[in-house]
Design a protein that fits this description.
about 15% strand, 8 strands, about 300 residues
Length: about 300
C-alpha cells in the first residue's frame, strides 16, 4: 500500500501511537519538507537526535523514563525515518541545525536540552554553536565530534559518490544491503547483542536505496563540515554531559569524546565500562542520568 500527504501523516501517527502509548506523532513543515517528531510527556523539553542511520525508533527504550519527568521530543532527521528531505541544496549538519530550530520554534519549544547520539551529537553541537542563547544544555552520546574515518563499512560510504554511487546503490543495495546492515549493527552494539526486534525493524528501513543514499551523503557532508566548527567548541557555555562507551568500535572514544571533553570548559564525561556505540539501547539509565545532570546545572529560564 502506498500512502502520501495527509493520509500518510495520519497513518504514521496511528502507527506511532500503537508502538509508543500516549505518544504524539506530528509533522512540521520546514524548507518545503515535512519533518517528523514523536512527542511524549510534559514539562521541560528534551530533544532527541538520532545518529546515522537512524530514526525516532532509536529512542524507544527512553520514551517512558524521560517522559516521566520531561517532555521528550524525538526528531527524525531530514531524509530519515518519516521525515522528508529538501533536494534543492546540500543538507549539511549546519542546515539540519537550522531546520531543527525552525521546527522547534513552530512547536513553541523553548530552551530545550538537546540529546544527540553519534552523528546526532555533531548536530547537537552545531545547534549549540548556532543558537547559544536558545539552549539549556546538551547531552552527547558517543558523539562524532571530529573529522575521521569511522567504523562503518566502506560499502556504506559508496552511495554518496557522484554518479557511480547511485549506480552501485541501485544495483547492489537490494542484494547485499541486509548483510551490510547486520555487520555494521553487530559492531555498533558490541559487546552487547543486537536486539532482534530492532534488527527486524531496521532491515526493512535501512535497505531501501533512497534511504541508503541519504545515510551515505550525511556521512560525507559531516566530514566536510566538522573541521569548519570544531575549533569553536570551547566557546559553548551551556552545560554539556558527554557519555561514551569504552568499547565503541564505531566512533572511537579517544578521538572524539575524550578530546571533546578537554575542549569544553563546562562539560562532564562519563565513560561506561563494557559498552559499545549504541548507548540509547544498551545503557538507557546512563542517558537519563546525564539529562538529569544537565538539567540540574541549568535551571529553566
Amino acid at each position: 500500500m502506498s500512502v502520501t500527504g495527509r493520509l500518510k501523516q495520519r497513518y504514521v501517527a496511528t502507527r506511532v501511537a500503537h508502538d509508543h502509548a500516549h505518544a504524539e506523532s506530528t509533522f512540521v513543515g520546514v524548507d518545503g519538507a515535512n519533518l517528523h517528531f514523536v512527542i511524549k510527556g510534559a514539562g521541560r523539553p528534551v530533544v532527541l537526535i538520532h545518529g546515522n542511520p537512524g530514526s525516532c525508533q532509536d529512542w524507544s527504550r527512553l520514551y517512558v523514563p524521560i517522559s516521566s519527568n520531561y517532555q521528550a521530543l524525538a526528531f527524525d532527521r531530514p531524509g530519515h525515518g518519516h521525515s522528508q528531505r529538501p533536494n534543492h541544496r546540500d543538507i549539511t549538519v549546519e542546515v539540519q541545525a537550522e531546520m531543527l530550530h525552525a521546527a522547534l520554534t513552530e512547536l513553541k519549544v523553548e530552551q530545550p536540552i538537546v540529546v544527540g547520539h553519534s552523528w546526532g551529537g555533531a548536530l547537537a553541537l552545531a545547534y549549540a554553536l548556532s543558537f547559544p542563547d536558545e539552549i539549556s544544555g546538551a547531552v552527547l552520546l558517543a558523539p562524532a565530534a571530529y573529522e575521521g574515518d569511522d567504523g562503518v563499512s566502506f560499502l556504506s560510504k559508496l552511495p554518496a559518490w557522484p554518479v557511480i554511487g547511485d549506480i552501485v546503490n541501485f544495483l547492489f543495495t537490494p542484494l547485499i544491503g541486509a548483510w551490510v546492515v547486520r555487520a555494521d549493527l553487530a559492531k555498533a552494539f558490541a559487546p552487547d547483542p543486537v536486539p532482534k526486534k530492532y534488527l527486524r525493524h531496521v532491515l526493512s528501513e535501512w535497505t531501501r536505496p533512497k534511504k541508503v543514499k541519504w545515510y551515505s551523503v550525511d556521512d560525507a557532508l559531516l566530514n566536510e563540515s566538522l573541521p569548519k566548527f570544531a575549533d569553536r567548541y570551547a566557546g559553548i557555555r551551556a552545560p554539556v554531559a558527554i557519555v561514551t562507551g569504552d568499547s565503541d568500535q564505531i566512533v572511537p572514544a579517544d578521538e572524539n569524546a575524550h578530546r571533546l571533553y578537554k575542549s569544553l570548559p563546562h562539560s562532564h564525561l562519563d565513560v561506561l565500562p563494557l559498552t559499545g556505540h549504541q548507548i540509547p539501547f544498551t545503557r538507557p539509565e546512563a542517558v537519563v542520568a546525564a539529562i538529569d545532570h544537565v538539567a540540574a546545572l541549568s535551571p529553566r529560564r
